[in-house]
Amino acid sequence: xxxxxxxxxxxxxxxxxxxxxxxxxxxxxxxxxxxxxxxxxxxxxxxxxxxxxxxxxxxxxxxxxxxxxxxxxxxxxxxxxxxxxxxxxxxxxxxxxxxxxxxxxxxxxxxxxxxxxxxxxxxxxxxxxxxxxxxxxxxxxxxxxxxxxxxxxxxxxxxxxxxxxxxxxxxxxxxxxxxxxxxxxxxxxxxxxxxxxxxxxxxxxxxxxxxxxxxxxxxxxxxxxxxxxxxxxxxxxxxxxxxxxxxxxxxxxxxxxxxxxxxxxxxxxxxxxxxxxxxxxxxxxxxxxxxxxxxxxxxxxxxxxxxxxxxxxxxxxxxxxxxxxxxxxxxxxxxxxxxxxxxxxxxxxxxxxxxxxxxxxxx
Length: 363
What we know:
Elements: H1 10-18, H2 27-37, H3 56-115, H4 120-126, H5 130-220, H6 245-260, H7 269-279, H8 285-294, H9 317-331, H10 338-344, H11 349-362
Helix pairs in contact: 1-2, 3-5, 4-5, 6-7, 7-9, 8-11, 10-11
């Protein structure tokens, strides 16, 4: 039976088996190491750069996400208020005629008593004895109390109806302003995300030119060209930011769910898509890294940490996914790039880049 190795020596164990840097090991070797050494799962690459500050463009992306969410939530609240007011008005419109009819009946009864001379004095004079007086007096009061209560109920209902109508008209007026705010927030959010996408395209083009220049320089010197990624980068323009957050999430959630099916991250497509919108990153980026680092959450080395993200633990996927997406946006960029790979897995960044790019292409 293989001896147990301390967690601190797991990287050396992996390096000895696969002749790779200690912090990067393929999924198969990881599984074999776990089986033989009975140690906690380790990520393919544990990146430590997890707390980068947002630059100007990223700060704008995050700000527009917050403003857009606030505006759309306010629109939903106003819409619900309008629906509630309309329902209240409809209910009162059905009740008021009933109250009015009951009130009319009571007033007719009071009128008949008055016309018949059934005043309090008449009640006293016509009573044969005290018990009969009490009975007649009680009936007399009930008729008037019922009439008064029905009058009050009718008056309250009419007032409630007027208040509900006024609130409805005010809400409808507010709705136009709030909807306009939401539309402006959406346009600004779209512009910022398209700017981030364009910046990523320019970075990809720059990296390609730099790689080509390095290869040419090495060739002129008669040297071997520096190792470069072999996988083609996924198209930066695959994400369409021109619509609303809801349409973006709807368009990506199904694709991500299909990719994540059968894994511990199954069903989290909507979470990944919403997190990508909020952070302004390629919606495939975080999910693809989860496959490279932990087989989509199957071998997390910290609770709900499917990305080798520092030494962080989370309490749920719904908490972890947005945090990772925002960290990627701040510290690594819009999508996978050579610069991002060199930061995330510096020991074997070319292989990491290839793996992530290949996984993104599957989504």
